[in-house]
Amino acid sequence: MQRAFRRLLWNSSVALNIRYQVSCAQRSFTSAGSAPLSPPSSPAVRLRTYQEQCIQSVLEYLSKGHRRLGISLATGSGKTVIFTQLIDRIEPSQNGATQTLILAHRRELVEQAARHCTIAYPTKSIDIEMGNLHASGSADITVASVKSLTSGRRISKFDPARFKLVLVDEAHHIVASGYMDTLRHFGLIESADLAHTPALVGVSATLSRFDGIRLSDAIDHVVYH
Questions:
Q1: How buried is 224 (Cβ within 10 angstroms: 0-12 exposed, 13-18 middle, 19+ buried)?
Q2: Cβ contact 81:45 at 8 Å
Q3: How far apart are CA 11 and CA 111, in angstroms?
Q4: pTM score of the predicted model
């Protein structure tokens, strides 16, 4: 799996592949009982003013107990940067959950999110659930293709109680059946107690649909647009 993941990232970015090999080496050394390699330094990300405002808006709504949030950002505004930065800004949940799941419906979006997370969080474990790449279910961050995640019993290895955050890219697709099945697994649909579920943040350039299906079935508040 690691070799396939390295090939995937090599096709996307040579520089990132080098970082990922270091990350893989760290995990190999750690699992063998040896001291891990020193992680590469992560360059500080300078957020634009509107990006920081967006993050603060999400945090404000979460602090008030709202759990299912949407962000509307124009194409090219750095939505992947924003939701990547949200991962460390959102505190572990009341039950100590720390893991994050990122959902996307296209291969290039899965790859892009994995690249950003690998660069932003060189010391975190990052898995991909897509095609023949099978995540462990216990990584700090899992980036998943919705189609793969909902295939067979692949979703069953993800314990909702261990997740503090579910991020959805291109969230205008969020009411499609695969997404809804995933959100239902994490208690984010038809739950009487959202306070004990992961936070849900959906990001899209346009939080609207043309088929009459309501996004409100999955998102309660659009907190930034």
A1: buried
A2: yes
A3: 10
A4: 0.80
